[in-house]
Amino acid sequence: MLEKQAKNIILAIGSNLGNKQHNILKAKYLINTDKKIKIISSSSFYKTESWPNKNDPYFLNIVLKCTTILNPEELFVFIKKIEKSLGRSKSYKNAPRTCDIDIIDYSQKNMLFTNIDLKIPHPRMHNRSFVLFPLFEIDKNWKHPKNNKKITQLLNNLPSTSLRSINIL
Fold first, then answer.
1. Which domains, ranges and CATH numbers included, belong to the chain?
2. Cα–Cα 20 to 30 A to 159, which of 66, 74, 134, 153?
3. Is 137 helix (H, G, I), strand (E, B) or coil?
4. Burial bucket for residue 35 (CB in 10 Å: 0-12, 13-18, 19+)
């Protein structure tokens, strides 16, 4: 029987509660210890203010470039287990959280899974400096799977307020 072919994926990890850096490193460790996912590269840490409520604690974010033999639904279930193991609980939309892991890209595909509320590529990633800057750091040739825009074009389209509110650590 043929082994599943590994797919290229992009994951974004963020935290704005507790020891943010530790939460992200722990999530990264848990991802990397699974034999079905291999981290190829990892960005630096990026600090951004919380959105939509700037009074919430600031976020730390990284982006990972990985390969996986998991299908999108399996990957989604896996990352949700990691979030929960790190203390994430469901609350209101955009609530502060110990760990948030998003699937940004899965093998340059456009997919919708209504049963698990998953859209790939991530529907708002092209507006998020905390995804685009770390992604550019690890893959300067990446293109958006839906609109085929280069990452440099997406970065150039970000509003200047978004550029002022991000810092590399």
1. 7-168 (3.30.70.560)
2. 66
3. helix
4. exposed
| pLDDT tens digits, one per residue of 6-52 | 999 999 999 999 999 999 999 999 999 989 999 999 999 999 988 77
For the residues of 5-38, what is the DSSP string, one character each?
A: PPEEEEEEEEE-SSSHHHHHHHHHHHHHHSTTEE
Residue position matching structure tokens 């999108």: 72
Q: Are 47 and 167 in contact (CB under 8 A)?
A: yes
Burial of 111 (0-12, 13-18, 19+ CB in 10 A): middle
- The pairing of beta strand 100-106 with beta strand 166-168: unpaired
107: tokens are 């093998």
Residue with tokens 């905390």: 130
Q: Can you tell me which residue has the tokens 């390969």? A: 67
Q: Tell me the pTM.
A: 0.92
